[in-house]
Amino acid sequence: MLTIHPELRDELAAGRPVVALETAVLTHGLPHPHHLDAITRMSAAVRRAGAAPAVIAALDGHLCVGLDAAQLARLAAAPAARKLAARDLALALTERVDGGTTVSATLVAARLAGIRAFATGGIGGVHRGWQRRLDVSGDLLELARTPCVVVSAGAKSILDLPATLEALEALGVPVLGWRSARMPRFYSRGADDLKLPRVDDLERVAALCRLRWGALGQPGGVLLANPIAEEHALDDAALEAATLAAVERARAQQIHGAALTPFLLGALEAATGGRSVAANLALLEANAELAAQLAVHLAKAP
Fold first, then answer.
1. pLDDT for res 125
2. Are 20 and 106 in contact (CB under 8 A)?
3. Fold of 2-299
């Protein structure tokens, strides 16, 4: 069921740094040809920083940790590839369908393989309008149960970020701001109303993880929020206005569940004239590099 690429198996057995990468961004998150470019750029950034990339997906009834070029190309070109959350894995593997893994499904694979660092764009969370329809991503629960550091540009800007932070607090997941005391909003660097503990030293983050997973016996993960670089960031007010408009259109068309996030991201791409795609690619690459740097620290003996 779990298939680990031989090179990654050797890296993990030797205790060398490995970074998990999701594939929902490949199958559902970005338009062609940017979807494959994103994985290529993230993998290259991980290698530049001294770690091994572990691209994760479901293929032919196997949860694959580490894809070769042919497997990546196949997944990128598969029109029927499913978007797989953690809850979908057992059914997908039983039915032997191909699928891109979301944050939650990738965390399952990371837990099984023993990978302690994971780079993504933005985690899922509590959707806007949750008071009317309780729509909460399984990413939060898997993050709470998996000993892994997730490096992301915060949570997706389409979410209710205050409610998402409250949910993470209730689940006992530490959220740290990388060189920032604000919760980033994926495409933007965030506003002052959502404060985070600021960290400027990756060895401090690694030490926190060792203490959490070791002496304290707390198995859950850590979210390291890495703000998008200023030169790639979108204006926060304009982003919020576009997001609100997209949410209203989704509500009017009764779009929800797994279809909601792709719809909203597509609406933001149209509203920003494609700038959101360029921002997405930039933050994915930056998060991959930071996760790899952290993985190197985690691999060092305490």
1. 94
2. yes
3. Indigoidine synthase fold (3.40.1790)
Are 17 and 292 a contacting pair, CB within 8 Å?
yes
User: How far is 299 from 209, CA to CA, in rounded Å?
Assistant: 12
- Catalytic residue set: 22, 156
Reduced DSSP (H G I as helix, E B as strand, rest coil) percent helix, strand, coil of the chain, to 5: 50, 20, 35
**DSSP-H helix ranges across 33-88:** 34-48, 69-77
C-beta separation of 118 from 19 below 8 A: yes
223: enclosing H helix or E strand: strand 222-225
pLDDT for 228? 96
pLDDT of res. 272: 82
Closest CA to 124 of 274, 195, 22, 43: 22
Q: 140 Cβ partners below 8 Å, 6+ apart?
A: 123, 124, 125, 126, 164, 167, 168, 171, 173
Residues in CB range of 197: below 8 A, 6 or more apart: 174, 175, 176, 177, 181
The reply to whether omega before 33 is within 30° of 0 (cis) is yes
Domain spans of the chain? 2-299
- Tell me the per-residue pLDDT of 102-115, one tens digit each, with 9 for 90 and over: 999 999 999 999 99
- In this prediction, the residues of the chain whose per-residue pLDDT falls under 70 are 302
Are the C-beta atoms of residues 296 and 17 closer than 8 Å to each other? yes
